[in-house]
Amino acid sequence: MKYRFVAGLSAMVIVAAACGGGDSESSGGAAECEVGETDGDLAFYNWTDYMAPELLEQFEEEYGVKVEYTQYDSNEQMLAQVDAGGAIYDLVVPSDYMLDTMIQEELVMPLNFDAIPNAKNIASEWQSPPFDPENKYHVAYQWGTTGIGISIDALEAMGNPEPTWGFIFDPELSSQIPGGVSMLDDSNEAFAAALKYLGYSIDEVMTSGNEEAIREAGELLKQTTPNLVKFDSVTFGDDLVNGEVGAAHGWSGGFALSFLEADAYDRDVYVIPKEGGVRWVDTMAIPANAAHPCTAHTMINFLTDAENGGALTNYIYYASPNEAATPFILPEILEDPGIYPPPEVMAQLEFVPQAGELQLLMQDLFSEAKG
Amino acid sequence: MSQTLRTGKWIDRFLRLNAWLIFAFFYIPIFVLVIFSFNGSSRVTVWGGFSTRWYPAVFENQQILSALKNSLIVAGISTVVSTILGTSVAIAIDRYRFKGRKALDGAIYLPVIIPDVTMAVMMLAFFAQVFRLIDSFGPRFQLGIYTIAISHIAFNISFVAVVVKARLGQLDPSLEEAARDLYASGWLAFRRVTLPLILPGVLAGALLALALSLDDVVISGFVNGSGGTTLPVYVFGAIRRGVSPELNAISTLMLLASTVLVLTSLFLQRDPKSKQP
Amino acid sequence: MTSLDHAAAHSQARKGRLLATPAGLYIVLFFIVPLLIILAYSFATRTATGRTELSGWNLESYDKLFTGLVMRTVWRSFWMAAVTTVMCLIVAYPFAYYLATRAAKVRNVLLVLVMIPFWTNGLIRIFAIRFMLGSDGPISQASESLGFGEFRILFTPTAVVLGMLYSFLTFMILPLYVAIERMDWKLVEAARDLYADGFTAFRKVTLPLTKSGIIAGSILVFVPSFGSYVVPEILGGAKTLLLGSYIARQFGQARNFPFGAALSVVLIVAMLIAVVINQRTEASEL
């Protein structure tokens, strides 16, 4: 009796679930929101250590709503949550290529720019990017570069060579780094670095669907793993200044913040390898199933305000796409070549585009390399 | 008794040394952690004089406070519900014969033996599908502290049932039979005789449920959604962001709370008739 | 059977069902159904963008189990769990023996001292280990000031095994303690008289008498070590890939739910086999 009941019930749930699975999220138009309108507490899902807590408090005070702030370590983790994790968020911060994926999968809603008048503060070079050519789904949040943070001792031990991705991938160099090397726990970044080291153009590989190159880079990553200390996207800066590692693959602002906090500017340095590096921009977007889209619009507008944009950069040490915020940004940040690289370095940097089916291949090969 | 057993002198020395080493292994890391929570320096591992500055910081951190509140709500609900359900199913299995009893007895052990990660992904997939199903009827649900509570009850029922069953197994059934003859009604016999007898088991089960709920990080981490961060989930995230003096202070407070819990549980389990626990 | 007996049995069954139904229903709905959903996921399709579609049922995820990476991960998890179990056994047996042979008063105090770390939050205990092992942590500082140089084992398999040892040692101590304490000491005394040396007596009598404790303790340590997630995440630097983390990653970063589900199914089956073996040996002892 009981068994039949159990079997019946579970069959029912599974069949119902399978039917329900076919439904796609509504891909309706932009939300009807006024400037400064709120429609409930904000569920904000952002990268680890990527927000000035004072700004959240200020927002809560100003608009009388609570901010439920949750953090993630990688674009893929965020996508898994938003796509099928059963959690509903009002505001997320995908990177360039991830926003592209989310637009394609109809996971984000078009924004109502009438409710975000501050969007005009974004510098023109960040408007209409390739991953959202019509500028419909996002407002740029912060941008930065990916390179290598390394201790000056390690550089001297190697005889001060020109910075290269070989610090990670060339066993002859990496074995000379006291303390060893860590790498970002992020498939896209790991592949971008490996491709650059192998001499490929990331953009060319991705847009032409060059599976061979990806597999070659995967093989390189696999060979490199045993020499690494760890994979980490959160503490890479602190690990470097604490001496847990001698060199780390990581993001510009993360290093800058750690160097500042530990007063380590004379011990460690952030470099962009000569082969060229990666630049990226993170964007604010609203998931298609957001429960409080108006509060989310208001938050985007709030963070894009000139003064607030400056406060954000002053706290997290990443570069701001917010042109109007420039006067509010500390001069030492604006002058830090690790945060705002000089034009000749910028010219060598590439965006990592959305790579379609290669994306999945990279995730799988990265898992394999890490094993 | 056992102490009279002849053991060689060097064996005895070895046993004693081994015991001290194990206690050192258990306690030194905890003590060091506690000591460094009183470190005045903001560089965690560099001693900067005695200070209690990190403790007020813990209580001023809104994220920690809301995580603590979530943890207490989840632990409270899951302990009460799982204690009631777990005790009644233990009594049913131990005292009554009914169809499906054997299958239930087996199923009760499943949540105990399943690794956290598997249970976590099971619950995540389950809630994702259930929400999709409910979604198609209109109302929208999402992960939160109630999904954590539901998951915690699911494994805690089993732990309570196992503990209570162990206690029931030690009881002399003739006591209950005598009581039934005496009181005529089974319910009275249960209330006056069985319940007082199994109460230590029930309380031990409840405490175990409470401890497990407060301990869980993996399952909570998978089904918490936004705003459902419990204290262990917060601490796990903080550890991954690196060591900090504040983290040592939270840890010390949590250690204090669990030590109180152990001592309470030992006190409750104490058998008043004999000196042995 | 008289009709009176029959009626009594009937009312027994009714009462039993009444008491068992709420918990039974709960476990079916919130445990058995999730278990079946994971089983269904393991046969589902992963689309080109990484989504899971509950249709087009296939065995692809199970095929993937036989690739080198998975085999290596399972083997590494098994091996590290085995090392942890054996190390626990080696240190816990003499410890439990020591506990069981103390006078009642001392023994109770020692037992409380064992129980306190057992009940303290597991995450905090692993954090304590992480704190100790850091390259500028207390151990490293001590070793540096003594002139032994930096102490580097954080983010290595050694650190993970140490963390698991720290987390699960009590699971080994307690069943061993119970088995040794309940042992018939007269038999041991007799064996001492019979065999010339203490070691033979131990091997021929004490060890077999405490076999149930050894098996129970080993399973209690092996099972959580094999599926461990938190310990390798914190102490392994996401580099010492173990089955638990591998499964979790399929539901996050790697976004391969069907494969993660298939791995979970394998892990559950392995656990069930371990438990059945345990029950068999227990039964054969009776």
Write the SSE topology:
The complex is a heterotrimer of chains A (371), B (277) and C (286).
Chain A lengths: L1 H19 L21 E6 L5 H11 L3 E6 L2 H10 L6 E2 L3 H9 L34 E13 H6 L8 H4 L1 H4 L6 E3 L3 H11 L4 H6 L3 H14 L3 E4 L4 H6 L5 E5 H10 L6 E4 L6 E7 L8 H11 L2 H11 L14 H4 L8 H4 L10 H14 L1
Parallel strand pairs in A: 1-2, 1-3, 5-6, 5-7
Antiparallel strand pairs in A: 4-7, 4-8, 4-9
Helix pairs in contact in A: 8-10, 8-17, 10-17
Chain B lengths: L8 H28 L17 H7 L1 H34 L5 H13 L2 H20 L9 H26 L2 H11 L2 H30 L2 H6 L7 H10 L4 H25 L8
Helix pairs in contact in B: 2-11, 3-6, 3-8, 3-10, 4-6, 6-8, 7-8, 8-11
Chain C lengths: L2 H39 L3 E2 L5 E2 L6 H5 L3 H33 L3 H16 L2 H12 L4 H8 L11 H26 L2 H10 L3 H12 L1 H16 L3 H6 L7 H8 L6 H29 L1
Antiparallel strand pairs in C: 1-2
Helix pairs in contact in C: 1-13, 3-7, 3-10, 5-7, 7-10, 8-9, 10-13, 12-13
Q: In the CATH hierarchy, what is the architecture of chain C at level 2? A: Orthogonal Bundle
The pLDDT mean of chain C sits at 88
The helix-and-strand class of chain A reads alpha/beta
Spatial strand arrangement across the major sheet of chain C = 1-2
- Compute the number of strand runs of chain C: 2
Number of strands of chain A: 9
CATH superfamily of chain C: MetI-like
Largest interface: chains, residues each: B-C, 98 and 98 residues
Number of domains of chain C: 1
- Strand % of chain A is 5-15%
N-end to C-end Cα span of chain A: 46 Å
Determine the strand fraction of chain C and express it as a percent band. under 5%
* Secondary-structure element pattern of chain A, one letter each: HEHEHEHEHHHEHHHEHEHEEHHHHH
CATH class identity of chain C: Mainly Alpha
CATH topology of the largest domain in chain A, which one? D-Maltodextrin-Binding Protein, domain 2
Architecture overview:
The complex is a heterotrimer of chains A (371), B (277) and C (286). Chain A has 371 residues and is α/β, with parallel strands linked by helices. Chain A is built from 17 helices and nine strands. Chain A is 42% helix and 13% strand. In chain A, the strands form two sheets. In chain A, strands 4, 5, 6, 7, 8 and 9 form a six-stranded mixed beta sheet that branches. A three-stranded parallel beta sheet of chain A has the order 2-1-3. In chain A, strand 1 (42-47), helix 2 and strand 2 form a beta-alpha-beta unit. The longest helix of chain A has 19 residues, at 2-20. In chain B, 46% of the residues are buried. Chain C has one domain: MetI-like fold (Orthogonal Bundle), CATH 1.10.3720. Chain C is 77% helix and 1% strand. In chain C, helix 7 runs antiparallel to helix 10 (211-226). The model of chain C has no long low-confidence stretch (mean pLDDT 88). The chains are: A alpha/beta (371), B mainly alpha (277), C mainly alpha (286). The interface between A and C is large, with 44 and 37 residues.
